[in-house]
Amino acid sequence: MRxxxxxxxxxxxxxxxxxxxxxxxxxKKRGNATAAKTEIAATQRELPLPSVPDxxxxxxxxxxxxxxHFWDALDVADHSQSLDTAFMGQAFANFxxxxxxxxxxAREKAVGAFAERCAEDLxxxxxxxxxxxxYLDEPNSPMRNEELFIPFLRKFSTDPRLSExxxxxSKFRLEQALKNRPGTKAADVRMITREGQTTTLLRELSDxxxxxxxxxxxxxxxxxxxxxxxxxxxLPYPVIAIEATEQREGWDATKGEMPxxxxxxxxxxxxxxxxxxxxxxxxAYLLTGDGKVIVKDGAL
Length: 300
Prior knowledge:
Helices cover 42% and strands 11% of the residues. It is built from eleven helices and seven strands. The chain has a seven-stranded mixed beta sheet with strand order 2-1-5-4-3-6-7, with no helix packed on it. β3, α10 and β4 form a beta-alpha-beta unit. α1 (14-20) packs across α2 (27-43) and α5 packs across α7 (122-137). The longest helix is centred in the N-terminal third of the chain and has 17 residues, at 27-43. The protein is elongated and about 60 Å long.
């Protein structure tokens, strides 16, 4: 879906202009937004954007209103809309652009309104679950965002209108999403260094550190490690690289190939699905010196 043109400029300019129109005097931006919306409308059907009352002037309140009413115009019974990948994908991409501007409470309500609208047709609801996962949880999605995905998972894991399999899958994914969230203390990891010393992750932290969980036999991991060594990358943090696949023999054979200035370690306990969750490897975390998570599973 990344290459099909579904995620387009309206998510950045059109919606942002709608949110802040009451408090921003930059007419040039609003003009750009109008032009972009006009161009898009000429090429593809769009879900009409909600009209935010002029009486709502606070940016956060405007975002909350827009998000809460975003799906009002969706004709769920019209499967050319509600089951169409391009139509729903574009609408969903526009919708989630709004969510970071809202409070947590407003976000939960907006996600609830999305679910309630789609649940008027169970086929449409199932498709909405798929779209949500595709955009917010697929490792290769440019809009992947676990924090935004959490309120969707809370809804999907408890809604009896969804299948038991969908609820259980959402419940499991929610449990994983709630681990090691930004602002919380990272789970410790028992490990051995390539020099043979037994230690733990939190014990090795002294300053802000990039922690890279990797698979010694993963080509994408090798590419990422090579990119991080490039002087042009100018990595500003020390690195702890942890082999996370429990393949000790392979790690022993390759640990000497890792950058000399990195602390290279092997996790001596099972991590994936336990203390951590890795939708794909490599998986990068940025931690403070006292172990607080700054970035969880960030893109490299």
